[in-house]
Structure to design on (289 residues):
């Protein structure tokens, strides 16, 4: 009987032969913890998948990796096993709710900063195989601007900054945008305002960040949308079931679906050598050296 890893390899080979589009890389981050970033990432990924796109969630939060916990599944392998060459990229891809595919990170991303050239090349070769296998790879990073998070922000094609209407959350979200900008990097930021009481509060929060970014950084920061402060979200977390699955008709789920729609309106398939996983890896490898 063929194992799952072999099946995945055969699938990506078939897709490559058909000349599939490149995979788009999205990084999700936040200025501070506790804003619901990982919960957003997972449910956003599920909403994209529900519209017919194939999505892979990469848990890149070193200290608090919890995508698997939110789904109530146990991670058998992680990025660590790939970096140690114990497993291939296909071995560490696991399935969670609604068969969403994910890769557990944990301490593995710390090891990325200490790899030899040979190990870096192996990592790049393995991750490159994902190009065309999925439409989107979404990296859920740690809160704040750590060295690891910065690399994912700079290498991704889109970076979604999740914040809430709380003043400290707004300040920290702007701070992370400002720090990246003052380093001289050109990053495609997009805002998501989580836990809003209504659309008015969401718009006011987004405007505060957007206006300051425009005035002091000369940056246009578009807003993808708002997620309602819905009590079903905490209920779903306790049940370890994503709220878009546990409560498909809730206001929070409708909010996420609208966000996914808004993102896809600006999304187009790109089939150039400079896009997708190859571009991400080129940037990442340069940043790691």
């Amino acid at each position: 009987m063929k194992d799952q890893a072999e099946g995945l390899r055969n699938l990506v080979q078939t897709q490559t032969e058909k000349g599939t589009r490149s995979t788009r890389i999205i990084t999700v981050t936040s200025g501070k913890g506790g804003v619901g970033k990982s919960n957003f990432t997972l449910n956003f990924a599920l909403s994209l998948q529900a519209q017919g796109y194939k999505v892979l969630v990469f848990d890149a939060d070193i200290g608090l990796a919890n995508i698997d916990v939110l789904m109530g599944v146990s991670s058998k392998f992680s990025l660590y096993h790939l970096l140690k060459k114990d497993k291939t990229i296909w071995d560490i891809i696991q399935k969670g709710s609604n068969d969403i595919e994910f890769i557990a990170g944990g301490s593995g991303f710390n090891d990325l900063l200490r790899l030899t050239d040979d190990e870096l090349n192996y990592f790049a070769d393995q991750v490159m195989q994902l190009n065309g296998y999925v439409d989107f790879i979404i990296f859920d990073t740690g809160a704040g601007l750590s060295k690891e998070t910065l690399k994912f922000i700079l290498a991704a094609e889109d970076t979604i900054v999740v914040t809430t209407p709380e003043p400290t959350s707004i300040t920290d979200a702007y701070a992370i945008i400002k720090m990246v900008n003052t380093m001289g990097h050109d990053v495609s930021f997009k805002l998501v305002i989580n836990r809003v009481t209504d659309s008015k509060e969401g718009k006011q929060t987004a405007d505060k960040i957007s206006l300051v970014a425009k005035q002091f950084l000369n940056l246009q920061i578009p807003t993808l949308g708002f997620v309602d402060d819905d009590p079903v979200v905490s209920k779903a977390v306790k049940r370890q079931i994503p709220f878009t699955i546990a409560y498909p008709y809730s206001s929070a789920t409708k909010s996420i679906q609208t966000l996914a729609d808004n993102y896809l309106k600006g999304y187009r398939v790109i089939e150039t050598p400079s896009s997708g996983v190859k571009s991400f890896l080129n940037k990442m490898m340069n940043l790691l050296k």
